[in-house]
Amino acid sequence: xxxxxxxxxxxxxxxxxxxEQAAAWFLRMQHNGCSDADQQAFADWLAESEAHRNEYQxxxxxxxxLDQLERKPxxxxxxxxxxxxxxxxxxxxxxxxxxxxxxxxxxxTTAIGERQQIVLMDGTTIDVNTDxxxxxxxxxxxxxVTIERGEASFKIGSERLRPFVVQSGHGTLRDIGTEFxxxxxxxxxxxxxxxxxxxxxxxxxxxxxxxxxxxxxxTYSANDLSDISAANFETIMxxxxxRLIFRNTPLNEAIRQINRYHERPIRLADxxxxxxxxxxxxxxxxxxxxxxxxxxxxxxxxxEQDEMTVLSFRN
Length: 315
Prior knowledge:
The protein is α+β, with helices and mostly antiparallel strands. It has three domains: 11-101, no CATH class; 104-234, Jelly Rolls (Sandwich), CATH 2.60.120; 242-313, Phage tail protein beta-alpha-beta fold, CATH 3.55.50.30.
């Protein structure tokens, strides 16, 4: 059963956003042309939470301490305003620098049949499919996600100062401003690019680098990069719409895909069933409907055993 999607923002990034808001309000309140509407908006922002008030007071205290350190008298409001702008700009830069130096690591897991969505402060969106384990690391110039198993799609935000890197199996993917999907199944990883480009490099073959552009895909393992082929995005991205799409797919592969979404697996009783070909679109969360459809399509019989459902030819 699919669980509701949710948006997650790491705590360190929430604090950084609040710091930038406080700095912006501090700068605006120092300006001589601050309007009544600005003052009311500022009052509303302060009233929202104690965290807002505390953060702003830190800037007020810091400003007073900096003002006392200034040895030369300020002769005009214009000069003071310029000094304020300079200090606040410096504070924002320092704040962002400290944020970059803050290490954030997170283990993201989805259960069988569950999906999640993570939105980072840089605008990057990560959709995580069923039965997936990701490790996310954000530190300094590093933005890296390691896929231990499963599938995720990435839509990279506008930040370009730090590269976005995905480690999956025996290869490294480097984003070049794009949207792409990554599926890791055992030793194999399949990468499909929707927009932009992704550079792929095998750990064991550092000189063997391929670049995928929008509409292309490939599969790699420890010592092999497949040829680049056209990507069928309707099929690849169907999981984000709770769908499974099969196009001339062997039945055993279709069953493997279905089992990714349900704790109780389906098994084929006879290897001859592998030769059957499935085409169609199905609801990935409707296990009973999937089994019934396969039974009707291929005149199969189902048997419920202790831990699984077994499909076989009808006698």
